[in-house]
TrEMBL record:
InterPro entries for the chain: Glyco_trans_2-like (IPR001173), Glycosyltransf_2 (IPR050834), Nucleotide-diphossugar_trans (IPR029044)
Protein name: Glycosyltransferase
Membrane-crossing residue ranges in chain numbering: none
EC number(s) per entry: 2.4.-.-
Keyword Protein transport set for record: no
UniProt cross-references to Gene3D superfamilies, sorted A to Z: Spore Coat Polysaccharide Biosynthesis Protein SpsA, Chain A
Record-level Gene Ontology MF annotations: glycosyltransferase activity
Glycosyltransferase 2-like domain mapped to chain residues: 7-116
Keywords for this protein: Glycosyltransferase, Transferase
Length: 324
């Protein structure tokens, strides 16, 4: 019989933590569920650890392992896992986080209490350091306060994808994630708000490891700075373009396009600057993007045209901080 819920364990380069993460999912005290332990082509032992855990498991849940042959990134990884299951409720579990034993049971209870109307259920998180020491509660916004697109347009909610469950039907309505997307949580939340709705369980159901492999690096060289600008703005462009496509499906393109017009133009300009091969190409971009304020364009032009200067400022700040 098809399970109602599938927990998608997304891991990459998490050999030190993935066994704990997987065991916390296998230990869920709930009806039988589907669990997919997935490694996104890690260069370390993450995949081997997941295979060994699945082979040794003896319990009520259906467990499968996926080992990617090439790294897909967050969005591509999600797309691949969603294709592997037909469960109506999809629950995220990061490869370095821990799910409380009652997490799935509480998510399912909340979903069923809504008559299975909701398309996303979130929860708070319990922060923890790299060594597992608990820190503070990490709250997210009460998504019941975002009943429609008008509320989302007024202010985006604070959400964390590591503690979300979303429906298969919302993915089927809007389609797969753009593979360039690095953070799916705003996409899944917007899709839910303009569909069946969303809510937040006001307690921490995920122990959230902070300072992992995705922690932002110090930009101490020109190459660091340019690479970060290229990556970050490419991600912003991808997210906003995805939101525009989803808004089109929801019949809200005009309102969302009006809100995203300026930030999307800025992100596209910065991404293009970081991609430009030389100063002449950057000067051409400076002239072409007349829809943006000239002073702002010039400031970003100089930052990207002379990245060594900005990296030097960052090195000086790092040295001064080290002396403090």
């Amino acid at each position: 019989m098809q399970a109602t819920a599938a927990v998608l364990v997304l891991a990459y380069r998490q050999a030190d933590f993935v066994a704990q993460a997987a065991h916390s999912v296998l230990a869920q005290a709930c009806e039988p569920i589907e669990i997919i332990l997935s490694d996104d082509a890690s260069p370390d032992a993450t995949g081997e650890i997941l295979e060994a855990i699945a082979a040794a498991y003896r319990g009520p849940h259906q467990v499968r392992v996926r080992r990617g042959q090439q790294n897909l990134g967050i969005a591509g990884h999600y797309n691949a896992l969603i294709e592997m299951t037909r469960a109506p409720l999809l629950i995220t579990a990061a490869g370095d986080d821990l799910s409380t034993p009652d997490r799935v049971a509480k998510l399912l209870a909340a979903w069923r209490a809504s008559g299975e109307r909701l398309d996303l259920i979130a929860s708070h998180l319990q922060g923890m350091r790299q060594d597992g020491t608990p820190t503070q509660i990490v709250p997210v916004d009460d998504l019941a306060q975002w009943p429609d697109a008008r509320a989302w347009l007024a202010r985006r909610p604070h959400v964390i994808g590591a503690a979300q469950a979303f429906t298969r039907r919302s993915m089927e309505r809007f389609g797969p994630f753009d593979p360039r997307i690095a953070y799916e949580d705003q996409i899944t939340t917007f899709r839910a708000i303009v569909s069946g709705g969303a809510m937040t369980i006001p307690e921490p159901l995920v122990h959230y490891r902070q300072g992992g492999v995705s922690t932002r690096q110090a930009m101490l060289t020109a190459e660091d700075l340019t690479g970060w600008m290229r990556t970050q703005n490419g991600r912003l462009v991808a997210e906003m373009e995805q939101l525009l496509r989803d808004a089109q499906v929801a019949g809200l393109h005009e309102a969302i396009e009006a809100q995203l017009r300026t930030p999307l133009a800025r992100a596209r300009y910065l991404w293009a600057l970081s991609q430009a091969p030389d100063a002449a190409a950057r000067r051409a971009l400076l002239r072409e993007h007349g829809e943006l304020p000239l002073a702002w364009r010039l400031r970003k032009f100089f930052k990207l045209n002379y990245p060594g200067f900005n990296a030097g400022v960052n090195r000086l700040r790092a040295r001064l901080k080290g002396r403090a």
